[in-house]
Amino acid sequence: MADRQPTLYPHLIRLGCQLPHLTESLATGGKVKIVAIGSSSTAGADGVVPFPPRLEQALRARFYGRAIDVVNRGIGGQEAPEELARFESDVLAEAPALVIWQVGTNAVYQQSDYAPFHNFDDVEDAIAVGLGRLATLPTDVILMDLQFTKAIDAINCGSAEVGHLGPNNINMGLADDIQVRIARTASRAGVGVFRRWALMKRWCDDGIPLSCMDDGVYPNLHTGEWATKWITIALDSAIGLAVGPVPGARR
Fold it and tell me: What is the pLDDT of residue 68?
């Protein structure tokens, strides 16, 4: 089952926007820099190679002949407010053509710090401020939302039983809440979202065991080898759809 190839649903992986700065950078033929900022999903955990180096290799193959570097700026345990605090040194100083900002997981997992009616709003505000800063630069942005793993699913289902007033005044789980907030903030800023939560959840609905999504290490929070591989393939496909063919870059 772990070798099963999942469906890469175009309607789920489509970013909803183009990537003009990345496209222009690829067209010039010079070095292309991408910064991935986030938490442990970006930094890597439990011996699983994370998505940034995998994506670097995939994009170099997709746009063969282009010098593409994906700079990993992930720090485990952080959420958008902490990541925003290091934007100047870890993101802006790199002058990237594309920023992939992975957010939302620790807002759910660290409930004592990011609980409803406390500072889920702070997470959403931090994302909005960060996107505002990036909007002033010749940089494209992709927000990557949280992963669908056993730890997050358990928290989401548990909170849904208790319930709280979500952003649309309906009873919803914590993960669903933050996913909606991420999508809403991205829409207002006009940037794309890589819908990792919806895609992994759909894979489970298709019959892929939830155990394939994480690395098997307690608390079953981090994506495992299978899921990380296919998330990267999906993200590479999403970027390819947004950019389209690049003259002179042979796949």
Answer: 97
- What is the structure's pLDDT at 196? 97
More confident residue, 249 or 55: 55
10-243: CATH topology: Rossmann fold (3.40.50)
Q: What is the largest CA-CA distance in the chain?
A: 56
- Number of other residues whose CB lies within 10 A of the CB of residue 229: 15
Domain boundaries, the chain: 10-243
pLDDT digits (tens, 9 = 90+) for 47-88: 999 999 999 999 999 999 999 999 999 999 999 999 999 999
Structure tokens at 43: 């930094």
Q: What angle do CA 4, 200, 187 make, to 5 degrees?
A: 145
- Is residue 112 packed enough to be buried (19+ CB in 10 Å), middle (13-18) or exposed (0-12)? exposed
CA atoms of 217 and 210, how far apart (whole Å): 13
* Gap between the Cα atoms of 49 and 224, Å rounded: 9
pLDDT at 120: 86
Say what the pTM is. Answer: 0.92
Query: What is the number of alpha carbons within 13 Å of residue 48 lying toward its C-beta?
Result: 24
Distance CA 165, CA 13 (A): 28
Closest CA to 182 of 219, 151, 141, 214: 141
48: left (phi over 0), alpha (psi -120 to 50) or beta: beta
